């Protein structure tokens, strides 16, 4: 199946700026001290406090879309104030990367949900977006993208190269990612969601974001190798296609099912000696499926 990129105009959103609140620990500052680490390929892993699981109450209920009517939204000033409150909540959680928080302060989450839910746009909740899907909680978006950012702590708050998102949903997380990476590819298997995400993102004129319609389990080889891959759906294992398309030194963050039937957040790093994998907190994402719908 042919996978086409949208043709967005030049980007007009301002770039993220440095935050002033208390610093978030970098990987080299705080060694990982939890049990459950599972090296793969003979590699020993050392992780930062940024990889420590979040408290249970912060991680339940997520994934990605809905319609929006900008004409019915509240005033720009009130929405900005709501984003500021959301950003302050995220700052209070250890391990959230400043650049991620700043990107989420900029991107209008309310533009990606139904106007009837506008009052909940910046609260700590997942919201329905159609097709049986939801937009992830702000803490989940910040958590997953912070795990990626801390893999590139020495790159001035930006992810070098390209990143791939599996599961575009409503397009919100992809919009946040566009502030963090040089180039973003986002693939969605449900045509209706792909089209709605395209409509949501068009007014933002994000020039470094490419939306793709296709099977996310197969990734998008033409865009690789990727510096990072982030999935908004969970399968029984990390697809081999993702590992193959990940560049050396790159990182995958994705929910994955365990033998006990739970779904946990998995971090996989691709290093010269193989793969190193870490299981983090329990999460609840929609299942990862093959094909298109």
TrEMBL record:
Q: Where is this region: Disordered?
A: 1-39
Mark out the compositionally biased spans (Basic and acidic residues).
Answer: 27-37
| Subcellular location(s) of the protein | Cytoplasm
Question: Do the record's keywords include S-adenosyl-L-methionine?
Answer: yes
- Record bears the keyword Ribosomal protein: no
Which residue ranges have biased composition labelled Pro residues? 12-26
Biological process terms in GO annotation: methylation; protein repair
Under Gene Ontology molecular function, one entry of this record is: protein-L-isoaspartate (D-aspartate) O-methyltransferase activity
- EC? 2.1.1.77
One GO term describing the cellular component:
cytoplasm
This one is known as Protein-L-isoaspartate O-methyltransferase
PANTHER family, per the entry: PROTEIN-L-ISOASPARTATE O-METHYLTRANSFERASE, PROTEIN-L-ISOASPARTATE(D-ASPARTATE) O-METHYLTRANSFERASE
Q: What class of enzyme is it?
A: transferase
Q: Which family does it belong to?
A: Belongs to the methyltransferase superfamily. L-isoaspartyl/D-aspartyl protein methyltransferase family.
Record NCBIfam families: pimt, PRK00312.1
Entries under Pfam families matching the protein: PCMT
For this UniProt record, give its keywords in alphabetical order, as a comma-separated list: Cytoplasm, Methyltransferase, S-adenosyl-L-methionine, Transferase
What InterPro entries does the entry give?
PCMT (IPR000682), SAM-dependent_MTases_sf (IPR029063)
